[in-house]
Amino acid sequence: MMEKKGFIARWLPGVSTLLGYQRQWLGRDLAAGLSVAAIALPVGIAYASLAGVPPVVGIYSAIFPLLAYALFGSSRQLMTGPDAATCIMVGAILGPLAKGNDEQYMAMMVILTLMTGLLYVLAGIGRMGFIANFLSQPVLTGYLNAIALIIIVGQLPKFFGYQGAGGELFDQLREFVLQIGNIHLPTTILGGGLLSLLLLVRRFMPAVPSALVVVIVGIMAVTLLQLDQHGVAVLGAVPAGLPQPHWAVFEFDTYRTLFRDSAGLVLISFTSGVLTAKSFARRNHYEIVANQELIAFGACNLASGLAQGFPVTGADSRTAVNNAMGGKTQLVGVVAAIAMLLILLFFTGPLAQVPSAGLAAVIIVAAAGLFDLGSLRSLRRMSSNEFWLSLVTTIGVLALGVLDGVLLAVVLSLVWLLAVSSKPKDAVLGRAKEVKGYHNIRDYPNATTVPGLLLYRFESNVLFYNVDYFCDRIRHLIATAEHPVQWVVIDASPINLVDGSGIQKCRELFDELAALNIVLGYAKAKQSLSRHFNQDWFTQHVGSARAYQFRTIKQAVTAFKAQQTQNSKDGTNLSSSQD
Q1: pLDDT tens for each residue of 486-540
Q2: What angle do helix axes 402-422 and 84-98 make, rounded to 10 degrees?
Q3: Which of 541, 30, 64, 549 shows the shortest CA–CA distance to 300?
Q4: How does pLDDT run across 256-283, given as a tens digit for each residue?
Q5: Predicted confidence band at 71 (pLDDT cuts at 50, 70, 90)?
Q6: Helix (H, G, I), strand (E, B) or coil at 570
Q7: What are phi and psi of 462, to 5 degrees?
Q8: What's 314's DSSP letter?
Q9: Which residue, 410, 438, 447, 440, is CA-closest to 425?
Q10: Are residues 183 and 268 in the same domain?
Q11: Are residues 485 and 398 in the same domain?
């Protein structure tokens, strides 16, 4: 029995929570579930247009992933479903591949969703939850700011009622300027009114599902004023009932392209979704399991794909509604899914009168929420380099497009990581009277050093891309030392990893300094440094060189002073004798 409970807790945390369900949670979970459904349904319909699919597909994508997450998810607040950035990526991926063929587009979308789910599950089993930290915050902020602008500009034709030709962001902006004279006034008035209503409800009645209010008011306006008879575009008939599976077979190159693009979707959608999960878990004083979230998101996407839906991730707006309503467990998602499923089965008729301008207003407000001026201001105050990195990401995504923008974001993250770690902080160490031990002489200007002994600390791992900098810094410090250097002792305590290039370069430096009668040693080295090497090789080439290894800095200083004393007695130079 204990093994069974352990298995459930490990692989089905949602089930584990429900097995220990407390009756007093039910009222809040029911209220939160209905509130989530009230916003998730219109948002799913609205976001379907971003993904380039019929509205009912957005409903499928809003319902079935919630049921999967309720089983596999480790967050008690997170709601999954359509996401603006993910949907815009889906459209960018599938548009060029389908070439205007709607049937192929839908079939490819299902394959893309299933591949995304499969990659998520494999990443979870492979314990790759660390990819949540792969994109730096400046790059992620810049990317989402660009996505927000792309989404808002893409909704202008629906909001103002003119015929849009699509294309890249700057083409759409130019089109908007040219189409100002063709703006449809009734659509614009309705869109502006619904947008204002949405903002007012969000501002003064935050507990009320503003998207649902806009949809209901929009339906009433279209029905009572017969606006559809005056050129106002409406959603049209939404087919009731459960999804009907449709499958297609494509050439191998198509599958390969979809698989590559699904990897980009996993990176972006998981980073966004897990940040939401972590944020709300922190507010409610518990921890999520990143690797389990990968599996949970995989289950959500597999459920969405089997239901003919598009890729999904954690949804911040619906999660915020759940949290505000006091939802306690994953049952909230089950309640929300059942409520939307009942509407899908029995009450789709009124949805036909939803005005497209109202859905555009919902999307515009949601996209505006992605745009983070506060973070940009913080980055500007904190670090000009990170601020410009964020801006370059935004400009790159706008200029190159969404898919190339994902690649740019990944490359910039790698470049940023390498730039930061290729020239890390270092220090010359000395003895300060007011504190115990040896410290950076820049931090303690009154610290004293031992003439002839250079104590050096490198605040990073020693790897192929920074080992030359490591060696050059030691050469520079030797050349500029006040007294001729006889020993160099490296404080290796910050070094957790050394690769083959690092060892080779250090051995070359050892020989170079030995030719100058300078001893190179190190102190406080970790035993784990050998774990990435063949042990026989490491013992022969590194581990056997014990002459200048010290357990502590103090031991190294004592050894140097003892050698100096011995030298003063007999004139023997340690380096010469070792040679």
Answers
A1: 999 999 999 999 888 888 898 899 889 999 999 999 899 888 877 766 666 656 5
A2: 120
A3: 64
A4: 999 999 988 898 888 888 878 887 887 7
A5: very high
A6: helix
A7: -110, 105
A8: E
A9: 440
A10: yes
A11: no
Task: Kindly tell me the burial class for residue 2, based on how many C-beta atoms sit within 10 Å of its own C-beta (0-12, 13-18, 19 or more).
Answer: exposed
Least confident of 4-13, 51-60, 151-160: 4-13
Domain containing 515 — which CATH number?
A: 3.30.750.24
> Could you count the other beta carbons within 10 Å of the beta carbon of residue 221?
20
Q: Are residues 445 and 306 in the same domain?
A: no
Measure the N-to-C terminal CA separation of the chain; round to a whole number of Å: 67
Is residue 551 situated within a structural domain?
Answer: yes
Residue 524 CA to residue 490 CA, distance in Å, equals 9
Beta-ladder partners of 456: 428, 490
Pairwise CA distance, residues 216 & 234, whole Å: 13
Pairing of strands 453-458, 487-491: parallel
Q: What is the DSSP letter of 498?
A: B
Running DSSP on this structure, what letter comes out for residue 539?
A: I
Q: What is the DSSP string of 412-473?
A: HHHHHHHHHHHS--EEEEEE-TTSSSEEETTT-TT-B--TTEEEEEESS-B-TTTHHHHHHH
Residues 32 and 130 reside in one and the same domain: yes
Helix axes 316-324, 252-283, angle to 10 degrees: 30
Average of per-residue pLDDT values in the chain: 86
Does residue 154 lie in a domain region? Answer: yes
Please indicate, yes or no, whether residues 365 and 445 belong to a single structural domain of this protein.
no
Phi-psi region of 431 (alpha: psi -120 to 50; beta: other; left: phi over 0): beta
- Render pLDDT for 348-372 as a digit per residue (tens, 0 to 9): 888 889 899 998 898 888 888 878 8
Residues 508 and 535 in one domain: yes
The answer on 430 and 291 residing in a single domain is no
The number of folded domains in the chain is 2
- Residue 360's DSSP bridge partners are none
Q: For residue 524, give the DSSP letter.
A: S
Is-contact 219 197, C-beta < 8 A? no
Residues 6 or more apart in contact with residue 232 via CB below 8 angstroms: 161, 184, 186, 187, 190, 222, 355, 357
* Residues whose CB is less than 8 angstroms from the CB of residue 60 and which lie 6 or more positions away in sequence, other chains included: 243, 304, 307, 308, 309
Residue pLDDT, tens place only, 456-465: 999 999 999 9
Per mean pLDDT, which range of 123-132, 189-198, 449-458, 464-473 is the poorest?
123-132
Identify whether residues 91 and 144 lie together within a single domain. yes
Task: Answer whether residue 239 is part of any domain.
Answer: no
Residue 104 domain flag: yes
Which residue from 332, 341, 340 is spatially nearest to 18, judged by alpha carbons? Answer: 332
Beta carbons within 10 angstroms of residue 385's beta carbon = 13
SS (H, E, C) 155-184: CHHHHHCCCCCCCCHHHHHHHHHHCHHHCC
Rounded mean pLDDT, 305-318: 91
Q: How confident is the model at residue 4 (pLDDT cuts 50, 70, 90)?
A: low
Name the residue range of residue 278's domain: 2-15+25-233+251-417
Residue from 362, 398, 399, 360 nearest 162 by CA: 360
